[in-house]
Amino acid sequence: MAPSATSTVTETVTLPLTLKARLDGPYKELAPTTYNREAEEGKAGVKAAKYPNYLPTWNPKQKYPPLQPFEHYEHGKDADTSYPELLPSSAAVTDLTPTIGTEVRGVQLSSLSNAGKDQLARFVAERKVVAFRDQDLADLPISKALEFGGYFGRHHIHPTSGSPEGHPEIHLVHRGEGDRTHETFFENRTSSVAWHSDVSYEQQPPGTTFLYILDKPETGGDTLFVNAAEAYSRLSPLFQERLHGLKATHSGVEQANSSLARDSIKRREPVVNAHPIVRTHPATGEKALYINPQFTRDIVGLKKEESDAILKFLYDHLAYGADFQARVKWEEGTVVVWDNRVTQHTALLDWKSGQRRHLARITPQAEIPFQTPYEGVS
Q1: Percent helix, strand and coil across the chain, each rounded to 5?
Q2: For residue range 178-200, what is the model confidence (pLDDT) as tens digits?
Q3: HEC string of 312-345?
Q4: Which of 206, 345, 362, 364 lies closest to 275, judged by CA?
Q5: pLDDT of residue 378
Q6: pTM surpassing 0.90?
Q7: How far lies 136's CA from each of 104, 118, 277, in Å?
């Protein structure tokens, strides 16, 4: 038989960056890992960043061993729930919705006593997310901001995100002046919404969490929050009971791979942990759904199709629950505090002006997620 005259040529195809990252998982494709330093320093004909000490760095020399378990103390359990130190009569307190979200003016978080911090942890657990206006946290030395946040738990060092020089405990959210990467993103996507609970893949994920504004666009860049405890309570008793006892895996592998695909850093080897789908809050006793599409991968013990069907229903339930969500609009001097154990959130990339958006997060870790028995209908 004559040999074939057809030859096979092997061709190497270079994948677009967004697709390259997507092959490693659905982690945030919009997270920048570079910026124009001259622009951020005001040397390129644009306004400089207001807080240059908070400009992000990605130091490849920062390497950390696996996180070790620690005993977390939940200060919210000690709180006076009349909130005398946190919410004095002079404070202006406005609920954003009946079930989630409160705005507070006239209270300075950095001046709270330990009793006031206990009340803060409990009030945030009850209201899920609280926006404190006219705060000085961004103006303090970074070490003092970290000292304040450290009361609520051990600081989490993010495995991939940018951080201020010398302070890896600070997680930065930064989109520089003139950034246009959203244009490429929306060539392949219809929405920037990415619901998640922060670093839920850790064995001890965060509890009381702080995010404070440094620079903001004139309009846009709001953050949405959803009440995962109310989402649980909306389910039928039969479905609630079925979820009890189930665990789901949460993975940090895709986040690390996405960072490496962008030639960025990996401070620590990624982990996968299994957590209860229904989580109990240690201070309030509330039960909340604890799964999210960014980090949850599958339900332990179920076949893929079974797991996918249940998780999709729960993701949709949380995402479509506009009647148990709140939208926080950022103002200068705002510190937003939320409880990662009973909420999810998503940033919005909805401004097209190229204006800078720059925030800093302090992320104290909490207890290993646990579940209390199903209680049924009272």
Answers
A1: 25, 20, 55
A2: 988 888 889 999 999 999 999 99
A3: HHHHHHHHCCHHHEEEECCCCCCEEEEECCCEEE
A4: 206
A5: 58
A6: yes
A7: 14, 20, 37
